[in-house]
């Protein structure tokens, strides 16, 4: 995308020899003018045309309500967004990122204003600090950055959108690491600094291992309090601030070294509190998440992690003893059984999900600045790991934007364009440090001296599925590793090019040998990585070229940044980019919620499913049948025509075919060697998981070279909502309530509306799997279908008689007001013989005669938008989708996504049949209403997602890395 005037001798990718010579000549010319700024090339934009002028803009109303009481918690009407932005993305950006008081003239009301506020600030700072070779290059930089943000190619982390270009401090970092020493002054500074960070809505992590243990003496002669006691005070402070400040949760990470004498007490802190929660709950106190009495429980505002070293892990492996060391002298004051201590960690994680584990020697083996201090801690989500009193600003790329189809329908990952966008984003991220403000002076000084960046990505799970790769497969891991390697290699290459223009980071000279050693480690890992198929091999080749340039340019120029990449949760910004999956996570489930323009929502099958089926070689009619099955069942098991060996491609984080815990660990291991930092991810385990399985996960994480790991066993937290199945069981075993007074009720019955003597009709002949038949469908003159007759030819008296009886039952139901779409949703995909090919071009395959009949009736009598919601399309519509990517007829404004929208919409009861009162339906409760994809999955699977409720809108959140994000309003439970 760009070249420095110092030159980059990377080989041209051009196939044209003349173009290659010309490019080399340009590089030679630029190399003769060192320190004159970057030349910026165009990626997406057109000279003379602003990116805003290339899209269609529309005005929308954003009204967000709390589903619990129906109250409006945010409203802004007439906001301006591109027409291709989803309702959810528009709602979240408007409510979270637009600045100015709602209703005031200063309030932002257009995405243009938001992007301009940020991008123009970056351009101005870049010009002031000598990043660009000319004003023309600065303008291209501005336009390319605006285009990428406008088209959801990438996003900065939330603090950038909150603060940049405003009158308030321009904090751009979401991740902070603090430090604390063994003195009361330092401990009180910790409380204050942490509180100020929480007040601003961010999170912080730190290591408490410098504080002497409760088994050591103070200088006055008494026993020290120990770090666990000081954790209590910090936890109370965080709990208070989260309730009264700008954020509803204080994101914290507390780390303790495994050789600290108080490590056992640290491990057991949350386990004991979990027992307290159980006792209080059994005594009648409200201990649910958000309950009135949960605040009396301690240590609930932080994630806890034990920092283990290789010495300890080898002692676990060999079954030997391990020494706990005094903080002041370093002498061993106690020896413990290493396996026993490791077992206690696993038991505690089994009981309450804490502590996680961090692998100290692995972390510091990849440390680029060891001469300036060890890495001792991480941010709350565990992806940022660097020096104490430092911060990291993040940005994430939307991987699905780089998946392309060629003219023959083959897929490839656009590695060249991906690398150009990475260069653009890294340049912008580094510029931001020039003008950024920081919460403390120490953090500001360290960050400006080391310029830590955290580029990452989202939508990996969607990309793997769309390309026909199982998440837990060698091919999936190879593609993930290749993309991660190319991203980090390109980032460091750009960092070396920036160093030639504006200088290396201040700490580089002292750490040059270590930094270049780590670059070689990354390059070596890239060289030895396994190549699998036609998708990942070209990406590996581009990554190899990038790492060669990194080593050469780094030794010559140094590096502008001590750190370049992490894999963050991408919660709110993932929703902003309309990503199906967050960070490195797989898909949550195959069926999701989609909000509709004008209000309401519908269930849809993920857009990536049809792409995956196409990649795997399935024909359009097979794709339609499989998608319809997924819409009804929520999984691919027994989907018509789907080969069992392809089931794994559609495995998700939850559901009938959930990815195994070790599958998550292996994916993390595939990406970790190519990241500067670590990965925000929690390995979900079923409720039936054992302590031994958790020990295996933690041990394999060390063997596979991970930097950090956390697990979550379903339903291990008392405060989590019970699953649907458990609630139902509790209701069955609950004692009967006292009989309520009998109340006289009025019973309403539906009224039959008969057809007139003369009625319009349509007769269709059909063949299903060799069985011939005729269908006559008669209609009301002005009110849709009212009668169906079925006649089977030469099928014997039994089938013919059953079809006669079935058609009479359907006809009577139609006349009593049962909507046709209800029948269609119930009887399509019903499987029995005869089944197979048909002679109907619109319905090429049918799973049974009943399946064919109701597909045909839907095509003849239901409007397009209703059919599309049910996943039923004509041959013409399917062809239109292949040609244009849309099923919609031209000229019609229909808010559907064709094949992906396959689950039935909500059907209102007929007007002739008012709903009976609650007393009459007690034995048949109404179905639970879902408000997002997590709750939908719970209803479908009868399981519990173990996620907290959103404090803003009341819906259940879903996991994003090691944090949670609300699909409804974009709120997160941790750092953004």
From TrEMBL:
Extent of Basic and acidic residues compositional bias: 13-26
Polar residues composition-biased segments: 1-11
Matches recorded under SUPFAM superfamilies: PFL-like glycyl radical enzymes
Function: Catalyzes the reduction of ribonucleotides to deoxyribonucleotides. May function to provide a pool of deoxyribonucleotide precursors for DNA repair during oxygen limitation and/or for immediate growth after restoration of oxygen.
Disordered: annotated segments: 1-45, 904-927
Low complexity: bias regions: 914-927
GO function terms (MF aspect): ribonucleoside-diphosphate reductase activity, thioredoxin disulfide as acceptor
Source organism (scientific name): Streptantibioticus ferralitis
Cross-referenced CDD domains: RNR_II_dimer (cd02888)
Protein name, as recorded: Vitamin B12-dependent ribonucleotide reductase
Family in the record: Belongs to the ribonucleoside diphosphate reductase class-2 family.
Domain of life: Bacteria
Keyword field: Cobalamin, Cobalt, Disulfide bond, DNA synthesis, Nucleotide-binding, Oxidoreductase
E.C. designation(s): 1.17.4.1
């Amino acid at each position: 995308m760009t070249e420095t005037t110092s030159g980059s001798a990377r080989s041209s990718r051009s196939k044209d020899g003349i173009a290659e010579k010309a490019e080399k000549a340009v590089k030679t010319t630029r190399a003769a003018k060192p320190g004159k700024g970057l030349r910026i090339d165009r990626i997406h934009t057109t000279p003379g045309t602003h990116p805003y002028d290339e899209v269609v803009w529309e005005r929308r109303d954003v009204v967000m309500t709390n589903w619990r009481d129906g109250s409006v918690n945010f409203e802004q009407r007439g906001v301006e967004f591109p027409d291709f932005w989803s309702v959810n993305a528009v709602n979240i950006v408007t409510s979270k990122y637009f600045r100015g008081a709602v209703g005031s003239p200063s309030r932002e009301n257009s995405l243009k204003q938001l992007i301009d506020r940020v991008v123009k600030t970056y351009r101005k700072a870049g010009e002031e600090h000598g990043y660009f070779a000319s004003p023309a290059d600065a303008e291209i930089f501005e336009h390319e950055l605006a285009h990428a943000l406008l088209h959801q190619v990438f996003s900065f982390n939330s603090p950038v959108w909150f603060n940049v270009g405003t009158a308030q401090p321009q904090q751009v970092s979401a991740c902070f690491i603090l430090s604390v020493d063994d003195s009361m002054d330092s401990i009180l500074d910790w409380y204050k600094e942490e509180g100020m960070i929480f007040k601003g809505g961010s999170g912080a992590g730190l290591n408490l291992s410098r504080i002497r243990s409760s088994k050591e003496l103070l200088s006055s002669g008494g026993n020290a309090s120990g770090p666990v006691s000081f954790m209590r005070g910090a936890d109370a402070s965080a709990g208070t601030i989260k309730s009264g400040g700008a954020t509803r949760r204080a994101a914290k990470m507390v780390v303790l070294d495994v050789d600290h004498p108080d490590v056992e007490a640290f491990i057991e802190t949350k386990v004991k509190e979990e027992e307290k929660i159980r006792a209080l709950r059994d005594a009648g106190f409200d201990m649910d998440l958000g309950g009135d009495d949960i605040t009396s429980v301690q240590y609930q505002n932080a994630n806890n992690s034990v920092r283990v070293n290789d010495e300890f892990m080898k002692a676990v492996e060999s079954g030997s003893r391990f020494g706990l060391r005094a903080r002041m002298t370093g002498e061993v004051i106690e020896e413990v059984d290493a396996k026993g201590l490791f077992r206690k960690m696993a038991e505690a994680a089994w009981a309450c999900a804490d502590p996680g584990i961090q692998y100290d020697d692995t972390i510091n083996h990849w440390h680029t600045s060891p001469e300036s201090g060890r890495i001792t801690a991480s941010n709350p989500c565990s992806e940022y790991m660097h020096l104490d009193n430092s911060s990291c600003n993040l940005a994430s790329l939307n991987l699905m934007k780089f998946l392309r189809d060629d003219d023959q329908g083959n897929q490839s990952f656009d590695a060249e364009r991906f690398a150009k966008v990475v260069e653009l984003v890294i340049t912008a991220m580094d510029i931001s440090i020039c003008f950024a403000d920081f919460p403390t002076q120490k953090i500001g000084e360290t960050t400006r001296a080391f310029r830590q960046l955290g580029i990452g990505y989202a939508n990996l799970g969607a990309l793997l599925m769309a390309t026909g790769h199982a998440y837990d497969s060698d091919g999936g891991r190879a593609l993930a590793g290749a993309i991660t390697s190319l991203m980090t290699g390109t980032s460091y290459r750009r960092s070396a090019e920036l160093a030639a223009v504006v200088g290396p980071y201040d700490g580089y000279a002292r750490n040059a040998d270590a930094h270049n050693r780590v670059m070689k480690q990354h390059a070596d890992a890239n060289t030895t990585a396994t190549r699998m198929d036609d998708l990942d091999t070209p990406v590996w080749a581009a990554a190899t070229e990038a790492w060669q340039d990194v080593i050469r340019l780094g030794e010559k120029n140094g590096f502008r940044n001590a750190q370049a990449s992490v894999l963050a949760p991408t919660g709110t910004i993932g929703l902003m980019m309309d990503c199906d999956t967050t960070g490195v996570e797989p898909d949550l489930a195959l069926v999701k919620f989609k909000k509709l323009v004008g209000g309401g929502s519908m269930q849809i099958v993920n857009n990536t499913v049809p792409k995956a089926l196409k990649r795997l070689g399935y024909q359009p009619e097979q794709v339609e049948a499989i998608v319809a099955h997924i819409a009804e069942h929520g999984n691919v098991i027994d989907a018509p025509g789907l080969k069992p060996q392809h089931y794994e491609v559609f495995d998700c984080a939850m559901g009938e075919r959930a990815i195994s815990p070790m599958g998550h660990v292996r994916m993390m291991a595939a990406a970790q060697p190519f990241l500067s930092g670590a990965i925000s991810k929690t390995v979900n385990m079923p409720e039936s998981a054992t302590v031994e399985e958790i020990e295996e996960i933690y041990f394999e994480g060390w063997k596979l070279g991970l930097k950090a790991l956390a697990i979550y066993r379903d339903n291990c937290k008392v405060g989590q909502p019970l699953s649907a199945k458990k609630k139902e069981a509790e209701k069955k075993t609950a004692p009967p309530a006292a009989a309520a007074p009998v109340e006289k009720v009025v019973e309403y019955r539906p009224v039959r509306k008969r057809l007139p003597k003369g009625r319009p009709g349509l007769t269709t002949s059909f063949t299903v799997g060799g069985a011939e038949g005729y269908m006559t469908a008669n209609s009301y003159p002005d009110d849709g279908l009212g009668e169906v007759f079925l006649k089977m030819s030469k099928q014997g008296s039994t089938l013919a008689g059953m079809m006669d009886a079935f058609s009479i039952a359907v006809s009577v139901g139609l006349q009593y007001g049962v909507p046709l779409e209800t029948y269609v949703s119930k009887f399509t995909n019903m499987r029995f013989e005869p089944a197979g090919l048909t002679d109907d071009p619109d319905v090429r395959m049918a799973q049974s005669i009943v399946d064919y009949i109701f597909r045909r009736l839907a095509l003849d009598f239901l409007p397009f938008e209703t059919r599309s919601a049910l996943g039923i399309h004509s041959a013409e519509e399917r062809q239109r989708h292949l040609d244009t990517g849309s099923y919609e007829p031209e000229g019609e404004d229909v808010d559907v996504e064709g094949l992906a929208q396959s689950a039935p919409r909500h059907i209102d009861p007929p007007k002739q049949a008012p709903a009976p009162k609650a007393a009459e339906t007690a034995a048949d409760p109404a179905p639970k209403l879902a408000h997002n994809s997590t709750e939908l999955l719970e209803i479908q699977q009868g399981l519990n997602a173990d996620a907290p409720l959103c404090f803003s809108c009341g819906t259940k959140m879903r996991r994003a890395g090691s944090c949670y994000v609300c699909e409804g309003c974009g709120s997160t439970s941790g750092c953004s």
